[in-house]
Design brief:
With 263 residues, this protein is mainly β. Helices cover 8% and strands 42% of the residues.
């Protein structure tokens, strides 16, 4: 969260993602301090024209970083030079910080896909392995006339198995099993007690960072939750019968080809 009094991002309430251990600020590319500028640098500094909205002009800056929480820290070069496009660049970061959570939650983030083993049919009373196929995603958006790069990383998963059972949120996305191990219990597997058709829904929680005009990555204070397309699965029951002989000895025996099974 941006603290206007401290002119910095501050730690969130308990339960929020851990913030970047560094703090950041930007300075004019060729500024030496006070009112002095490097004349050689001014001759070669980057041009900031034709910003994201078309024809606005910006200012060339460099980004500096220092450890957070240290009084009078020593600032060092982090990245740049790059351009800032804003009529009041001193207000840029807090204005974007105030809007970034809403922007993050509105992005077309793909929650991933639900994979089931076995599928599309499984057995009642047996372990059905589910896992998520989710990945980090990146987006480029324009906010307040600035180029903002967002990185969304999946961090937690919630499974609704469709029979009233919900598991999560928890950090495991699960994983595939070789076919000869289907039926084993896994971190994200589930046992259905009844037969029928069920819709499994995965909700993935993403944590994000954002950078403004190629500046340093800053943490997005909150998280975003996105749901994957439901996965349908049919739960069947199995029946076991014992027979005294095989079909070679008794071709008309129960369970042999062409012989109706008893109801």
């Amino acid at each position: 969260m941006w603290d206007a009094e401290a002119n910095d991002f501050v730690q969130q309430a308990p339960g929020a993602p851990i913030l970047d251990p560094n703090q950041y600020k930007y300075e004019l590319q060729c500024h030496l301090g006070g009112g002095d500028f490097d004349s050689v640098c001014l001759r070669d500094q980057i041009e900031c024209r034709n910003g994201p909205e078309g024809n606005e002009e910006g200012i060339p800056v460099v980004w500096l970083s220092a450890p957070r929480g240290i009084a009078n820290p020593v600032w060092s070069h982090h990245s740049g030079p790059t351009c800032l496009y804003d009529a009041r660049p001193e207000d840029l970061l807090p204005r974007i910080a105030a809007q970034i959570q809403q922007q993050f939650e509105s992005l077309p983030i793909n929650a991933g896909a639900v994979v089931a083993q076995p599928s599309p049919n499984t057995l009642r009373g047996a372990e059905t392995n589910f896992y998520a196929d989710a990945s980090e995603q990146q987006f480029d958006v324009t906010m307040l006339g600035q180029k903002v790069h967002v990185v969304a990383t999946p961090v937690q998963y919630t499974w609704n198995y469709g029979d009233g059972t919900v598991f999560g949120p928890q950090p495991s996305m699960g994983g595939p099993l070789p076919q000869d191990r289907w039926g084993e219990k896994t971190r994200t597997s589930h046992v259905y007690a009844d037969t029928g058709d069920f819709r499994v829904v995965l909700t993935t929680t993403f944590q994000g960072t954002y950078s403004v005009n190629n500046g340093p990555p800053l943490p997005i204070p909150g998280q975003g939750q996105f749901s994957a397309l439901p996965q349908s699965i049919s739960v069947w029951r199995s029946i076991t019968r014992n027979y005294a002989d095989d079909c070679n000895q008794n071709p008309q025996g129960q369970g042999c080809p062409g012989v109706a099974s008893p109801r």
